[in-house]
Design a protein that fits this description.
- The chain folds into three domains: 30 residues, no CATH class; 279 residues, Aminopeptidase; 198 residues, Glucose Oxidase, domain 1, CATH 3.50.30.30.
- The protein has 17 helices and 21 strands.
- The chain has a 17-stranded mixed sheet that branches. Strands 7-8 form a two-stranded antiparallel sheet.
- Strand 19, helix 14 and strand 20 form a beta-alpha-beta unit.
- The protein is globular.
- It binds zinc ion.
Length: 548
């Protein structure tokens, strides 16, 4: 099969060989004596489907960390890795314990701002990260701080001249570049880390604010209010910290845009006009109103787990390429009528399944690569990338020996594509490896379609990047392979988007998984290059990340 690419006619007698010939992708991938081509071809949609269906089944109860759903998921993953012949990645264990704190704010709360009584989940949402059974915000002075950005490299500080100690800061979502893409600061529509809510709460905490409230808007946030309401209510998880998060703002919250407009009107201001001012220059303004809210908080500590499995390298087994995917999702909501289970089929049974089929592919290679291929299937991504954060801060493989990270999250169920979307394009020379493999599939690389949504900061590879390990996150793009796929894609995309973090994110028999197969083959090859080489991928010099 490895030579039949020379002439299609030579291959015709053999149907098996024919399929290989039609796939121009695998022409010359070395080493020729290896079974790489066979293994590459063996990555199939049936295996993907099997894993996705099981992980996203009702039996797994939405895979919420620390629940029975976690136990079932861990058992399944560990068993799969064992069967493939993988070694435990953490001493003699396939698990890395991650100590989480689970906090649940009592939904019986009202936030008062000026004359406005804002209703929980309808007009606002609030919670605390502090290990306290009750936090009280009482008549705290409200200050609008624009985008809440303090970025010396852009000479931009929305907190300039302010002392926000004890005060409540109101912050716009995304960064100033989103509304002012022509401006010379930030990166236009491409979101920087300053646009992420995580950053906004971190900065407000550094400034000493008592509370930080972000104004939700669908476009710049890239998701609707229901996503905020769902993901910020019920149990919230954090990593256990020594000081009980005493250095965080007491109250972290969100307002709907309607609530914000009312509040600004009460302050005699027009929200839209204030927003305009905040996009061109650093901006803040006292609103002359006070905010009050009491968050009754119950919390408990519990242990969740990352799964880690290794296929030791033949020559330099201490050097690891780490593939990551998150196994967790949102669990179930027993207060809901009808379907209560957030199955998380797309998010992220697809990525976990991709990891499993790729792991299986590496195990089937006749020639063992030089370096180790390690699969890290992390917990608590949905609660703020916690499993990967814990791993990156407590690495089992020293970061200096971690060649790179390749992440798989919410893989495309929209069929095969001609393009490969790189999330956060232009960051590292891993894209050179990716481009080479993509070309052999007849595909080309593009910047993802929504760089404004900041997806590079929204999945687990970000925690590797933060620690300086080059990290790649790429998947099927937007140009369907043919007409039929285009039609299917149009129909399915509406459902997939509409079901983001909803109970309807469940496995569908009509899903075309050939796009994931294509991406699994692509990333398998990229990874194979890396574990077969002595090279150390590097960040581009313009990247905000560099090896430490
Ligand atoms: Zn998610």
């Amino acid at each position: 099969m490895k030579t039949c690419h020379t002439l299609l006619a030579l291959c015709l007698p053999l149907t098996l060989a024919l399929s290989a010939c039609q796939d121009k992708t695998i022409e010359a991938k070395p080493p020729v004596e290896d079974n790489f081509v066979d293994v590459y071809q063996s990555i199939n949609t049936d295996d993907l489907k099997k894993h996705i269906k099981i992980l996203a089944s009702d039996e797994f109860e939405g895979r919420l960390p620390t629940t029975v759903g976690e136990q079932k998921t861990l058992d399944y993953l560990v068993n799969e890795f064992k069967q493939m012949g993988y070694a435990p990645g953490n001493g003699d264990s396939f698990l890395q314990p991650v100590e989480l704190i689970e906090m649940t704010a009592d939904p019986d709360m009202t936030m008062t701002i000026g004359e406005n009584e804002l209703v929980y989940k309808e007009g606002m949402i609030a919670s605390t990260s502090r290990e306290q059974s009750k936090v009280e915000l009482k008549d705290s002075e409200l200050v609008f701080v624009g985008y809440g950005v303090n970025a010396p490299e852009y000479d931009w500080n929305d907190y300039q001249g302010l002392d926000v100690k004890g005060k409540t800061v109101v912050i716009l979502v995304n960064d100033p570049g989103f509304e002012n893409p022509e401006g010379d600061k930030f990166q236009g529509k491409t979101m920087t880390y300053y646009g992420r809510w995580t950053y906004k709460y971190e900065e407000a905490s550094r400034q000493g604010a008592e509370a930080a409230i972000i104004v939700h808007e669908t476009k710049p946030a890239s998701y609707g209010w229901s996503v905020v309401a769902n993901s910020w209510s019920g149990p919230q998880y954090g990593l256990v910290s020594k000081n009980g998060n005493a250095d965080r703002v007491a109250v972290e919250g969100w307002l709907t845009i309607e609530s914000a407009q009312k509040v600004f009107a009460d302050a005699g201001l027009d929200f839209i006009a204030e927003k305009q001012k905040a996009k061109t220059a650093p901006y803040n303004k006292h609103l002359g109103l006070n905010a009050s809210v009491t968050v009754n908080n119950s919390f408990k500590k519990s242990i969740s787990h990352n799964v880690i499995a290794t296929l030791p390298g033949a020559e330099t087994p201490d050097e690891h390429l780490i593939f990551s995917a998150h196994w967790d999702h949102l669990g179930k909501d027993e207060t809901k009528d009808g379907d209560q289970i957030y199955n998380g089929a797309h998010d992220n049974a697809t990525g976990t399944a991709t990891a499993l089929v790729m792991a299986n592919a590496y195990a089937k290679l006749n020639i063992k690569p030089k370096r180790s291929a390690t699969f890290l299937i992390v917990t608590a991504e949905e609660q703020g990338l916690l499993g990967s954060k814990y791993y990156a801060e407590h690495p089992i493989v020293p970061l200096a020996k971690t060649v790179a990270n390749i992440n798989m999250d919410a893989m495309s169920v929209l069929g095969k594509t001609k393009d490969v979307a790189v999330i956060g394009m232009g960051k590292s020379d891993l894209e050179t490896n990716l481009e080479k493999a993509a070309k052999r599939q007849g595909r080309y690389l593009v910047q993802e379609g929504t760089p404004g949504a900041g997806y590079y900061y929204r999945s687990d590879h970000f925690n590797f990047a933060k620690q300086g390990v080059p990290a790649l996150y790429a998947k099927g793009g937007e140009e369907p392979i043919d007409e039929a796929t285009a039609k299917y894609r149009k129909r399915t995309n509406v459902i997939v988007r509409g079901c983001y973090h909803q109970v309807c994110d469940q496995f569908r028999e009509n899903w075309d998984l050939s796009g994931i197969q294509q991406d699994a083959q692509l990333l398998f090859e990229v990874g194979h290059d890396l574990v077969s080489s002595n090279d150390w991928p590097k960040w581009n010099t313009t990247s905000e990340f560099q090896r430490k």
